[in-house]
Design brief:
The structure holds two protein chains of two kinds. Chain A is mainly α. Helices cover 46% and strands 7% of the residues of chain A. In chain A, the strands form four sheets. Chain A has a three-stranded antiparallel beta sheet. In chain A, β8 and β9 form a beta hairpin. The longest helix of chain A is centred in the middle third of the chain and has 17 residues. Chain B is an alpha/beta fold. Classes of the chains: A mainly alpha, B alpha/beta.
Chain lengths: 552, 446
């Protein structure tokens, strides 16, 4: 039985468990501050992002100089009329991928931006929820082929990740990247055309109900009809040309529209860049039967789009199935995979009772005695993006500190990403899921290759690795062990270990392993000098690479 | 983003695109049976290698091996009015009312040599139209989820638990359920270089002693009561550590370089293009080159796993599907040819390798508006010198579809697995049946 009653007191260890799961960790000092507050109010503030600790003003301002790496010159494609060289942009500068930079369509930059945000956003919970929803509503840049639209979708997860689930499901269904990803833009059910089932199947199987959980093939076909013509348009001003090759253009934004033959606004493009005064007539007409109930898919009652009533009926008619599906996903990401059938039922009942209000659901779950049960602490293998970001939060300068440094003390995230190789090899190619089912969590994160890459990234994080780009050498992860990693100069090797373990927060490390490390690193008299600080880096590396270092 | 041209094609204008096909050649596969006459299969080699190719996304094999006569053709023409491949000049007649699409380049040559065993209609009772459920079922080799895969169970049974770390390999960066065992899993090696521990992300100087961390992984594995995440991390780390210690990984953790002896799709000299005449690309080519490199370097792998994704052609099939077929067929033919130049102490690689290709399902017979949706019965095939070529199992009856308009399977997929386990991987009949839960009829291609 999952006891969903809220805790009334908490320890620093509880706080750190909460912060690892509901954010990207807290250091000892910040955890102590939170622990001094009553858990109910503190968790409310954490989730709502309310209060000085979660003020994003400085964070938002820092985005203007968040990318420390020089953006290289883009040479003009002289075969295209009007092309010009785009000069290099010395860092620091914003991550050049959205808005007027949409033409760059650079997944590497988009991934770097997301990592920077996760590392530094004081409202960590919105980034954690965005990461969760991105895995659930997994979408791939390789098909969408537009980094700006992928980031628009990620922002949707930040802004509506705590809405009512049915509202979020509708918003995702209307999202331009999603409309491309699962072929809604090509779903034509007008006249005798046979609709494309891709989105209709996956929205129930992967996004709301689970495979074969409350629907059948007929429902898929009917829902596909309801969602036919779901597409988007964009303003001419959002159609951003590549200055170095001006015939190549990318929409920087998109606005949902049902393609039903109706007029589109002047100075507006069709989803694929075409121009017309009328949208294609792709939306089906008439009444469908979904879950055995008739639905007029041409209705716009309640201000809903044509067919929106069908998406909403997934939650309203199949609520129990949907709540069970959501409960599984939430438990797997936030609590444990070792839940019982009763635990699952209890959490699903709570979701139903909350009317699918995700804010209320998350507050109940993350305050619960069940969540804080010691058996659930370190019971999950951490996903690679979370693992990487959490380590960066613990080892690199804080936002205020990094922002005050010259050069800025931020990781060279664009170089860390190594194109898109690093996150791909770590097992979570952020913003570019290979399929709509996303990534398998917990032990699914771990295989010989992903562990290989965790050790490589751990080396970059802890051992002061540098990388040259455009004639400048950058630290991949600026780190300052002597000043940042230790609250007081360690007097013994054991103290080095204790302070590092408290900072990195691995799962329990067998005593014999830790002893072997310390004996090998400090075989004789301990002195806290430069050599020992290098050894401390190596110890941090060993902790991050160890089996315990993959748990959270 | 999708171009205007692709969009218009996706809306149904397929004819013009396909009409240009013959001008693209076909990798030497010109529609005739070219490449030589049928040769008898060689005996199963002493050191066989299985290369699994995952055709990921549920391929529309009905357009690869379409009917070209009889009642099946009538149904096919009616339900594939826009996407169907019915022009005889685009097909090689295989006899029995079945033809081979010329876009599947190279395969007509291998077929003519008698090197291809086709198994159309392969599937399972109670098929599932979900990619992911179906992938799991194909991986597990069971219609009741078992949690591990048929090749993982083979590894549990056949591999030395404390050795043989490189006997099962995937050249993908993930670890599919097919390769997961209860006691051990396959090792994932997606590149030929930098397979060394410890290593920086790019490069660096001082590193801790590797044995310190290996000691941690080893201690974890030797512990008695540990949680699944801890154990999985320890196993994965130890597997990686042990694998990169193999002598085949030389200085810098790299496998000895090797230059392929034939062009592969993606190489500048490869003669076939995409439908658009843009260069043909294939991620599978790179995987096959890596496997060839590993075999040449003497890695003791018995099973390799590879993947070509992109087959989920709900839309834009008229463009995407021919290109995918060219990538798959061209890569297989190049790999097959390339292997003949590799001879190690274990024999010639072309003699030793058998390719097994499978997909999680076939697609709906009735096309939608520019693509095809999820279906059921699939097409698997095996390629190799020891393979007896031809058609195995029955071609589905397109006049007798299920209630959702999908094909009924004719050959249980576990018959394929049983055949491979017993007759290629050398498992005893009783062991084979044990790995699959019961006895499935063997197929006659081995």
């Amino acid at each position: 039985m999952a006891v969903l009653t809220a805790i009334t007191t908490w320890t620093v260890a509880d706080v750190q468990h909460f912060a690892r799961r509901a954010g990207f960790g807290l250091n000892a000092a910040d955890a102590a501050v939170l622990q001094a507050q009553a858990p109910g109010a503190a968790i409310d503030a954490w989730i709502d992002g309310l209060g000085a600790a979660y003020d994003t003003t400085a964070f938002t301002a820092a985005l203007a100089t968040a990318d420390v790496v020089t953006e290289p010159l883009v040479s003009a494609n002289t075969a295209v009329a009007g092309s010009v060289d785009v000069p290099a942009v010395p860092g620091p500068h914003p991550f050049l991928v959205e808005g007027a930079n949409a033409w760059r369509n650079n997944l590497n930059t988009a991934q770097a931006l997301c990592a920077w945000r996760m590392q530094h956003d004081p409202y960590a919970f919105q980034e954690r929820m965005a990461l969760f929803w991105h895995n659930l509503f997994a979408t791939g840049w390789h098909k969408v082929n537009n980094a700006a639209l992928m980031l628009k979708q990620f922002q949707l997860f930040r802004s509506q990740g705590l809405a009512k689930f049915d509202d979020l499901l509708v918003a995702v269904s209307k999202d331009p990247a999603m409309c491309i990803w699962l072929d809604s833009v090509l779903n034509n059910a007008s006249g005798t055309n046979i609709p494309n089932e891709n989105y209709a199947r996956e929205v129930m199987e992967l996004y709301s109900l689970g495979a074969d959980n409350g629907y059948n093939q007929t429902d898929i076909t009917q829902l596909a009809r309801a969602l036919s013509g779901w597409s988007f348009t964009f303003a001419e001003t959002d159609y951003i040309a590549d200055p170095a090759s001006p015939t190549t253009k990318y929409p920087a934004d998109g606005h949902f529209k049902v393609y039903d033959g109706s007029a589109i606004s002047p100075d507006t493009r069709l989803w694929w860049g075409g121009s017309a005064t009328l949208s294609y007539a792709m939306h089906g007409t008439g009444t469908i039967s979904l879950f055995g109930q008739p639905l007029d898919i041409t209705s716009t009652a309640n201000g809903w789009a044509k067919g929106e009533n069908a998406v909403r009926s997934i939650v309203s008619v199949r609520g129990s199935n949907c709540a069970q599906f959501l409960a599984k996903r939430l438990l797997t990401h936030f609590v444990t995979t070792g839940y019982s059938a009763q635990d699952l039922s209890d959490v699903a009942a709570m979701i139903l009772s909350a009317g699918f209000d995700l804010r209320a659901v998350m507050k109940t779950l993350l305050k619960s005695q069940y969540f804080f049960d010691p058996a659930n602490r370190f019971a999950l293998a951490e996903g690679p993006v979370s693992w990487l970001v959490r380590a960066a939060r613990m080892l690199c300068p804080s936002l205020a500190s990094a922002n005050g440094q010259t050069p800025k003390g931020y990781p060279a995230w664009r170089l860390v990403m190594n194109g898109t190789t690093t996150l791909d090899q770590l097992g979570m190619k952020l913003l570019d899921a290979s399929g709509p089912n996303g990534w398998k969590e917990h032990t699914g994160w771990l295989n010989s290759n992903t562990m290989r890459y965790r050790t490589k990234v751990a080396a970059a994080l802890t051992l002061a690795e540098t990388r040259s780009s455009s004639g400048t050498t950058y630290p991949l992860f600026p780190t300052f062990p002597a000043t940042d990693w230790f609250s007081s100069p360690p007097a013994t090797a054991q103290s080095v270990y204790d302070q590092l373990a408290a900072r990195l927060q691995p799962g329990p490390i067998p005593a014999g392993v830790a002893t072997a490390w310390l004996t090998a690193l400090w075989p004789s008299t301990f002195t806290w000098d430069a050599a020992s600080q290098t050894k401390a880096r190596e110890l941090a590396f060993l902790i991050l690479c160890s089996p315990s270092g993959q748990l959270y | 983003m999708t171009t205007r041209r692709e969009f218009i094609q996706a809306l149904g204008a397929t004819g013009a695109a396909l009409a240009g096909l013959s001008a693209c050649g076909g990798g030497g596969g010109n529609g005739s049976s070219g490449g030589g006459s049928t040769q008898p299969p060689i005996p199963v080699p002493a050191a066989p290698i299985l290369v699994v190719v995952n055709i990921d996304g549920g391929w529309d094999w009905l357009n690869v091996l379409p009917p070209n006569s009889g009642t099946n053709l009538g149904v096919y023409q009616a339900k594939r009015a826009n996407l169907g491949i019915t022009n005889p000049t685009l097909l090689t007649d295989l006899g029995g009312g079945i033809a081979l699409n010329h876009d599947f380049i190279g395969m007509d040559q291998l077929h003519a040599l008698g090197r291809v065993a086709w198994i159309p209609g392969i599937g399972m009772p109670n098929p599932n139209l979900s990619h992911f459920t179906s992938i799991d079922l194909w991986g597990q080799g069971a219609t009741v989820p078992a949690g591990n895969g048929w090749l993982g169970r083979f590894a549990d049974s056949a591999f030395n638990p404390s050795g043989d770390v490189l006997r099962g390999l995937t050249v993908t960066s993930d670890l599919p359920v097919m390769l997961k065992g209860s006691n051990r899993s396959f090792v994932s090696i997606p590149s030929a270089g930098g397979y060394v521990f410890p290593a920086y992300l790019f490069s660096g100087a001082t590193m801790p002693d590797a044995t310190l961390l290996e000691g941690g992984w080893g201690t974890a594995l030797n512990a008695t009561s540990i949680d699944p995440g801890y154990l999985a991390a320890a196993q994965a780390g130890r597997l990686f550590f042990d694998a990169q210690n193999n002598p085949a990984f030389g200085t810098g953790g790299s496998i000895a370089t090797r230059t392929p002896t034939v062009p592969y799709p993606g190489d500048a000299t490869y003669p076939v293009t995409k439908l658009s005449t843009a260069p043909l690309t294939s991620s599978l080519s790179n995987q096959f080159k890596l496997i060839a490199q590993m075999i040449a370097a003497g890695l003791p792998a018995q099973v390799f796993f590879s993947r070509l994704s992109g087959w989920d052609t709900h839309s834009n099939q008229a463009v995407d599907h021919p290109n995918l077929q060219r990538a798959l067929g061209g890569s297989i033919k190049a790999f097959y040819d390339d292997l003949s130049s590799i001879t190690t102490a274990s024999g010639n690689a072309q003699d030793r390798v058998m390719i097994l290709a499978y997909s999680e399902f076939g697609r709906r017979v009735q096309e939608n508006n520019g693509g095809t949706d999820h279906g059921t019965a699939g097409l698997s095939f095996c390629v190799g010198r020891a393979v007896k070529g031809g058609l195995f199992g029955g071609y589905p009856d397109l006049t007798n579809l299920d209630s959702n308009g999908n094909m009924k399977f004719t050959t249980d997929f576990r018959s394929l697995y049983a055949t491979v386990l017993e007759r290629w991987l050398g498992q005893a009949a009783t062991s084979t049946d044990g790995l699959l839960g019961t006895t499935y009829p063997r197929l006659g291609f081995l």
